[in-house]
Structures are given as structure tokens and as C-alpha cells.
Amino acid sequence: MTKAIVPMDIPLLFQTAWNEHDMVAFASLFCEDASFVNRFGHYVKGVKAIVALHSPIHETIYRDSTLQNEIIELSPITDDVVIMHFWSRLTAGTAHPAGPHQVDTLILAVLSKQNGSWLIRALENVTLTNPRTGQAILRDD
């Protein structure tokens, strides 16, 4: 299992685990007591709950989806804690009921260094939407 040696590794490792639909690799990115808020506002606590939230969708509607992540900003709090923002573009495939489409989200993650590697302590994912209509929009590249 690849570990995050520096905080900047997290978005790529997250992307790779998602794109390979590898829930073991995905789980390895989180602290045991991490919290996760998905793009629909569903809150879960603990790595087991995070995997339980994601496993069913990777077996069904997102089984052919991919992510492309891009770091926006890294803000150190201490030597062992950082806040990171990164863009995430989800490309859903034909397995999704709405068919192939893309969704952009903005991810806020709190990372902590534990035993020489960086892990996600908390993550919140927000879908970009038009505030007037609620329609999902793609960010300008």
C-alpha cells in the first residue's frame, strides 16, 4: 500500500484508489477515527463507516467512474497538521442512472502526520452548483 510521504501525495492517492475502485487503498488514506462528509451532506465517522459509504457505489453506479484531482492550496497549521483544498472532477460512466456526465467538487481535507505518513483526519466534499438554480456546474479550467 502506498503511503503519503508528503501532504501533496493525498489527492493523487485518493484519485488512484477511486479510479481503481480499490477500497483497501481508499481506507488506507484515512485515520481510524476520520470524519467524512460526502457531496450530498451525508456525514460518517470512522474509516469503517467511510468505506461502508463508498463500497456500494463503487460496485454499482460509480463502478466505471474516474476522478481527476488538482491541489488548490495547502495551509500548514503545525508540523503535523495541514489543511488542504483540492478540486475533484468526477466523470461518471454508463453505469450511472443519469448516464455519462461530469461533476466538479471542492474538497476540504484536514491531514495529520502519524507514524511518518500523512492521513486524512477530516474531509468535506462540496458540489459546485449554480446558486440560483441548484444545477451542478463545471468549474472553469
Automatic annotation (TrEMBL):
All copies of domain DUF4440, residue ranges: 14-120
Regions that span the bilayer: none
Domain of life of the source: Bacteria
Gene3D superfamilies per UniProt: 3.10.450.50
Short name of any one Pfam family annotated for the protein: DUF4440
Protein name (database record): SgcJ/EcaC family oxidoreductase
Originating species: Acinetobacter genomosp. 15BJ
Taxonomy of the source species: Bacteria, Pseudomonadati, Pseudomonadota, Gammaproteobacteria, Moraxellales
